[in-house]
Amino acid sequence: MLARDLVRPYPLVSADSDAFTAAKLVAERDLQAVLVTEDDLPVAVLSAARLLELIVPAYILDDPRLAAVVDEPHADRLCDALAGRRVGDCLPEKRKMPPVVAPDDTALEVATLMVHERSPFVVVADGERTLGVISSSHLLDRLLEIT
Amino acid sequence: MSGWHSWAALAVFVAVYALIISERIPRTAAALGGAGLMLAIAATDDAAAFYDESTGIDWNVIFLLLGMMVIVGVLRQTGLFEYLAIWAVKRARGRPFRVMVMLVVLTAVASALLDNVTTVLLIAPVTLLVCDRLGLPAAPFLIAEVFASNVGGTATLVGDPPNIIIASRGGLSFNDFLVHLLPISAVLTVVLIGLCRVLFRRVFTFDAERATEVMTLDEREAIRDRRLLVQGLVVLALVVAGFVLHPVLHYAPSVVALLGAGLLVAISKVETPEVLREVEWPTLAFFAGLFIMVGALIETGVIGEASRALADAMGGSDLGAAMILLFGSAVLSGIVDNIPYVATMAPITADLVQNSGGNHVLWWALALGADLGGNATAIGASANVVVLGIAERNRQPISFWEFTKYGLIVTAVTVALSAVYLWLRYFAFA
Predict the structure, then answer these.
(1) Residue A57 and residue B395: Cβ atoms within 8 Å?
(2) Which residue of A17, B104, B271, B303 has the smallest Cβ count within 10 Å?
(3) Interface ipTM
């Protein structure tokens, strides 16, 4: 099984798009991350974990005991922190480029790259043309079918 | 000063100081590297560096810091400070100036018992939460807390690392600090509150609706382990009692702190490795390196020469010496980290005290100058740097000059009042 057999279309979000909308996309489709593009080229990964990191105030991350003192209604309004932000503003300072595989790479090569890069998905690209994405869950699913 | 050893030791010392100020390499690496060079050029030796109380590592200072770091490390886990801060803010009913007063007083009191960096690390997140709720800029509150930590830390032997060095080198007890520095520290805290009222007057806008949001914070939720809290408070009380009862018990502060730390680890469920992770090992190594370097300057006669030159310059006037130490230390501590400054000045001050017939006012002048001078600039003390980092992470940046314009005013007023205090207490009515 080669990367071209595993590739699927994957939601892409532009770096200039609204962060709130991107977060809704992650939530509604139960994604681990979305691929961020600039000029239609994938440039970074915005993970669900990073979005959570952004909505929890930094002072709470500095002192996690404070999370308990905040009442439920305020705790439920955490996503307000994303309002007015662009997706590009939400990326970590050190942007991580998504790992890229070629269409003729094997499933083992794809899995090895995911583990090595600690990435929930890889981009399948044929030269400069992006064909889609392989997610870790989809890769496992396809491998289990054969086993 | 004679011999190449003296000049070589002085050159190494100046180079290391420059490295510490420039922050081009970690200060601990600079101090340990300097200590290594002092040993390599035979400006000092292993016997002096490791076993001589006056020219080597001051183990009383190192172990007092270690013991207090362990105790504070456990206390931090109890949520006590978060509880107290939120409780205090709720008593202020969300009125901005009252909130600032409560936080300043809490910070000053906590800083007298804990080190300043730990105090601001605990108070700053609560402040950001409260300001978030009140819709107020956090910067003025954070800056006021930094000032309070440096003023409050002046009050006791364990309040600020320079005081620990001064106590050890000057043979001063915990009670000496309470008698001589606590009164002026309390006065300066009140003055600081008045200054904050004026300096930050534009931010004290009360919003009744926002204020009710502060009242929804539940401080009791901050305390997760009541048993640990009780154990921590009992041990802290015992340690303070041990410090105060030194004339009866004759235990050095380092021994009291180590016994307290050992007792707390023994009776609580906190794992020893977990506690040891809370210890700032680089800071302890930094102190060790500094002591060896300063010891080398003593061994090679550089400190003796500096003491004689300073004594000549002061012309045998204790008042003049105290004022030069106070104002000189305040200016230099605003530029240089006050720990290496006091480590260097302590043996010189010891010589001056000896020459003046044991007049301890010089120690108090050094402590007040070094501790209060830390408020002058954004890099004057470790607590300042830590709070600026926290503010930056929370997207409420405080620029160097924003801090320094307030810091210079607060330092000028507090140091001037300290000068009046020293004059009145030790000269005019002595």
Answers:
(1) no
(2) B271
(3) 0.73
